[in-house]
Each structure stands twice: as structure tokens, then as C-alpha cells.
């Protein structure tokens, strides 16, 4: 990213964070904004305190493990967010494990999309185990890194559509 683009992005993010502090919106769409952990960590700290936001779309960005860990910390305490889109980011095993731990405490999130993130099979298994204990989650999209037999086993044990494993 060129210097001018970086400055413009930083200015936009600063403005957004200022608005977020006063936010009464229920939906925030930050799809494909070039956001990295540097910007998502402060956003997550605001999410921790926000009591109106129900939907956060962060797909098609470059959120990594640090950003996912910050979001996980916020999710452990947030009581309003029902929809979180983290499609096609850079969340690896550490971020997946942090999200799994948070989801075992969160009682409001209903939809989570983690497709197209570089997670290993063990991290996806950890997420599935945590999600099994979370009755609020209605649908979670996970990267397809498990064997067909494992996917079939999970799908057969849970209501139709609750876990979706795909690369699409």
C-alpha cells in the first residue's frame, strides 16, 4: 500500500473509531476495507463496551490472529452482537482457539463465518467442540480442512445447517 493510501486508510479508521464511540447503529459493514490487526484491535475494544451493535462484517480484510484474539476478548463480554463475518481474512490457529474459548462464554452470537482463513484441522476441531456447547449459535461457516468422515460425523450430530464446512 502506498503512503497516500495508508494515510487515507488511517484517517478513515480514526474517523470510524470516533463514530463507533457514539455508535447507536445496529449494523456495521467494513467489508474489503484493507483492515489489519492494527485497526481491528481498537475496534474490538469498543465492541467490548458497545451495547447496540448486532452485526459486524469484517470479511475480505487482513485480520490475523492478533485481531481475532482481540475480537474474542470482546465477544466473551459482549451481549448484543449476533452476526460476525470474518470471511477471507488471515486468522490462523491461535486466533481460532481464542474465538473458540470466547464462544464457550458468549450467549448472543448466532452467525459466524470463518471460511477462507488459514486454519489448521486441529483449530477447526477446537471451534466445533466449543460450538457444540453453545446453544445460541445457529449457523457457523468453517474452512473445509477436515476429512469427509469428520465433517459427516459433525453434521450428523447437529441440526441441519448449523455447521457448514466449505471453501465457497
UniProtKB/TrEMBL annotation:
Keyword Repeat: yes
InterPro entries in alphabetical order: Leu-rich_rpt (IPR001611), LRR-containing_regulator (IPR052201), LRR_dom_sf (IPR032675)
The protein, known as: Uncharacterized protein
Keywords: Repeat
Pfam families hit by this protein: LRR_6 (PF13516)
Superkingdom field: Eukaryota
